[in-house]
Amino acid sequence: MPAVLTGVAVAIVVMMQLFLGEDVGLANNGDGARLWCRFGIDVPQRLGLDFTLATDSSRVCIQDAATNIYTYPTSMSLMIRPVLVLYGLAVSSSEFDIRYLGVLGALSLAAIAAFAVHVLPGRVWTKVTLVAISFALWADIGFVSYLTSYYSDPAAFIGSAALLVVVARHARLDDHRPVDYLLVVAVALVAITAKAQLLVLVIPTVAMLLATPWLVGRLNWRGMVGPILSVIVLVGGAAVYSNSDGSFFADANEYNSMFFGILAASDDPVADLAEMGLPTSLAPYAGTNFFNPGGNAADHPDYKRFQQEMTRSKQLRFLIRHPDRLLTMVGETIEAMPDFRVPYLGNYEGTGEGLSGTTAQAPLTDRWDPMSAALQGLRTGIAVWLPAVWLLAVSLGTGAAIRRRSDPVWRSYGMSAAFLGTSAILAMLVTPIGDGYMELPKHTVLVVWLTAPLLAGLVVAIVAAAAWAIRRPLEDRAVVHIGKRLD
Questions:
Q1: Alpha carbon distance 298, 307 (integer Å)
Q2: Which residues share a beta bridge with 362?
Q3: Could you tell me if 446 and 427 are in contact, meaning their C-beta atoms sit under 8 angstroms apart?
Q4: Which of 5, 44, 180, 373 could hold 176 in an S-S bridge, CB 3.0 to 4.6 Å?
């Protein structure tokens, strides 16, 4: 019953955020068309507050009809397709109302909350409190407004939340069946294929799979078969996905990570390009981004050579040799996290004039926004205290799981904390490295999402420690009193 009630409460809160009050502006900066045109949905570049769009089953992606450079693979398709089918059966219309996708998102989060309360170890009040605070933070309008947008973020949010719960469940088990490994792999693949930024979730998931047999005392060939096979499937799936994005946007990310990232923070772009063995004639374009036609290096005679010679490994080796540059990029990325809500990403009320990067919007000051408010209020020193929270979660979580590995409660919550801390750090690192400073809010929102349950766990831990500190002296005095009476 607590699990069901928690799920119902989450569904109500999320749908109130989405549908109670003024309409939330739709999100689109061009990415939506790449995804939705595959389903016959024509997403206009400029969006107002009309959630109902015309459909055309005969429409194909014009870009893909000629080439595959705009390919946008994402597990978000797993959410879109069933909604379109059910909508067509129930409404039988040539139009589609994207708010139905928001309902599916709300119900999915509710199901995950109920599942979490059901499978997490420990006392009921502890589980319900932890899940309730986590989902209260996740109900921030800066997150849930994406549920009625054209981005793939809903799959990223729902997939990563489900993966966290599955990791916690897997870590608490003493005996693992094939279906347990299948569940981890299936949910992990959904999460990491939602958005390329979440590919980094493979690392903590693999670590959890390989560590669990040792933690539960089954470090033998039978105990390792399941983890090893799971890791092979998971890493293989991640490798296939990482190479399936359209070349246009792969080129865009490489351009932005170099010119709008590494070189944007450089005092000597010529020397940096020379050190990486790249054309120094492109140094004047430091600070430009790929989506500014006429203002970037794309038309320069040496740009083709840059594309041929530029590799991610060159960038990584450069940043390893210059850690100060990496720290600068990371620091600026973390400092941008309190501003993960921006007008064109659908986190603001629209004026009815259509949404674009320049259209004036009104902030949603009357909606629940605890994560945004917390980060705004604590933004002073955020580049210090936030990484400290992540590192603390990794160290204490790993230590708790190892030291108390015979206790499924400590093992489960310790592994979960380490998983979240590691995931947040990696997702933060790939943000500036993957796409430079291009649209930081669109990428930092996932890092903030992964951080929310860590903050919830911190609150629960502080309250539990305070309760224990108050209760322990009372119990000691009661024991002394009983002892005296017996004497």
A1: 10
A2: 349
A3: yes
A4: 180
